[in-house]
């Protein structure tokens, strides 16, 4: 497994990506509130998680929260710090590019619709399950699909696991986004194929990926080209040259 650290962003942002960072701040704030609450209050907050059986039956939670509302609220809850940290790293690195490609308001719509579709995909896979779904990874999967369609050749700095460091001079290397995100997508499909029981909602990730792949071409600015590879070191060949 690899951990992305940053990407070589080709944009000189005309405006700050406030939606991306607003979502990061919102998720972190909710997690801090979760941790700071006493046990009883935490239980009440957990009623905002998405429970498949509740949504399938249309029954409100014990605290009276509509199961349809939890299709949005579940995205802001996280199981632990590592769960939050991993999601926010991906959102911070890849979200700003996607926001720039479609504008802040359409990006916010894109994010929530991707998360809702991810939640529905999870519910459809286990409609009678009573285990709640929490986390922003479904919505972020939509962001990853959009980034992959937008900047597949963009260099992404990644931290490599200790057990393969001996293959490289340094633990941080730069790899094309298509390999970083493609590897992540393949791990999701592999986990589904082997019916992994590690507690990760892989079907939510797949639902978010599909939603992102459909929505990004529709919501992007018309001037944004799909699958455009931008390299800082590329220079056009002079007339008459073969290359």
Structural class: mainly alpha
Mean pLDDT: 81
Shape: globular
Strand content is 5-15%
CATH level-1 class: Mainly Alpha
Describe the structure.
This protein is mainly alpha-helical and 243 residues long. It has one domain: Rhomboid-like fold, CATH 1.20.1540.10. Helix content is 53%, strand content 6%. It is built from nine helices and three strands; from the N terminus they run E-H-H-H-H-H-H-H-E-E-H-H. A three-stranded antiparallel β-sheet has the order 1-2-3. Helix 1 packs antiparallel against helix 5, helix 6 runs antiparallel to helix 9 and helix 7 crosses helix 9. The longest helix has 22 residues. It is globular and about 50 Å long. The two termini are 36 Å apart. The C terminus is likely disordered.
Brief rundown of the structure:
This protein is mainly alpha-helical and 243 residues long. Helices cover 53% and strands 6% of the residues.
Notable characteristics:
243 residues, single chain, 53% helix, Rhomboid-like fold, mainly alpha, disordered C terminus
Secondary-structure blueprint of this entry?
Blueprint: E1 3-7, H1 18-36, H2 39-46, H3 52-57, H4 70-73, H5 81-102, H6 104-125, H7 137-150, E2 155-159, E3 172-176, H8 177-193, H9 202-219
